[in-house]
Specification:
2 domains; 5 strands; DNA-binding; Dna Ligase, domain 1; homodimer; alpha+beta
DNA sequence: GTGTATGCAAAGCTTTTGCATAGGT
DNA sequence: ACCTATGCAAAAGCTTTGCATACAC
């Protein structure tokens, strides 16, 4: 899907990108809006939605979703990783690496192209805190 | 969370349960409503929402969610399994067994209690079809 | 100067809730 | 008979869209 016109480089989208650079973890729409307004006070909700969609389209962000957490966005290009959700502080983390052998995971006949892994438990700071 | 009063055994909830017994795969709210109406024509959307919530509370159903697939409900008590989504026919399957070693998957300090695995690819009937 | 991206408000979805009544016990 | 669960309609989210204007180029 190629774009016919060049993407304009707006203050708002830069702010949104910076929000993700500042918080290296998956963020919800509301968080992007809240943090983004610290950078551009006028930032509007529609603009956030529109730019999140654009950034996903451009492959800069990835959309993830969870039954209890709703929709989250995270930066791409950090290699394959898993997600860990802390049941205590309710934050989602990214864990490097992959402990899954795709060829072992599906019965014969299924062609596995890709996978997502979501872990649940308690994160280090909640364990020690 | 214990219930103070007994749950009544209604035609509508029975119908909803039967929908899941008839289709042994994760279903969306719309599918539950559509198939449920074949069993109880008057079945209402609110009733579906209310009963899905009840059945999750009672542990009879589990809620799963995915960025592109939205919210799905599936029966519990079938042992741990993974999900496979076919990119061609768009159906979601349950795959038996587990190919993940939880202790290998997270760095020190993270306590992993549970996990979900979602696979993507092509299912056998789409491969051969 | 031209035309896209933004802000605002309204519209569209999906899900939840209030209320009268049907129906399970 | 009692009182919960249902159906209906309204309300409450969350997300998208139309339109005038600001602003990137």
């Amino acid at each position: 899907m190629r774009r016919k016109t060049k993407r304009r480089n707006t203050t708002q989208r830069n702010a949104i990108e910076n929000v993700f650079r500042q918080h290296e973890r998956p963020l919800g729409v509301d968080e992007v809006l809240r943090y983004g307004r610290r950078l551009v006070a006028s930032l509007n909700q529609s603009t956030v939605y529109r730019n999140l969609k654009i950034l996903v389209e451009d492959g800069w962000l990835k959309r993830i979703s969870h039954a209890s957490l709703g929709v989250l966005y995270e930066r791409t290009g950090k290699g394959h990783h898993h997600h860990f959700h802390c049941r205590q502080c309710n934050r989602t983390f990214e864990l490097p690496g992959c402990a899954l052998k795709e060829e072992d995971v599906a019965p014969d006949g299924f062609i596995v192209e890709d996978h997502d892994i979501f872990l649940f438990g308690i994160c280090p700071s909640c364990v020690s805190g």
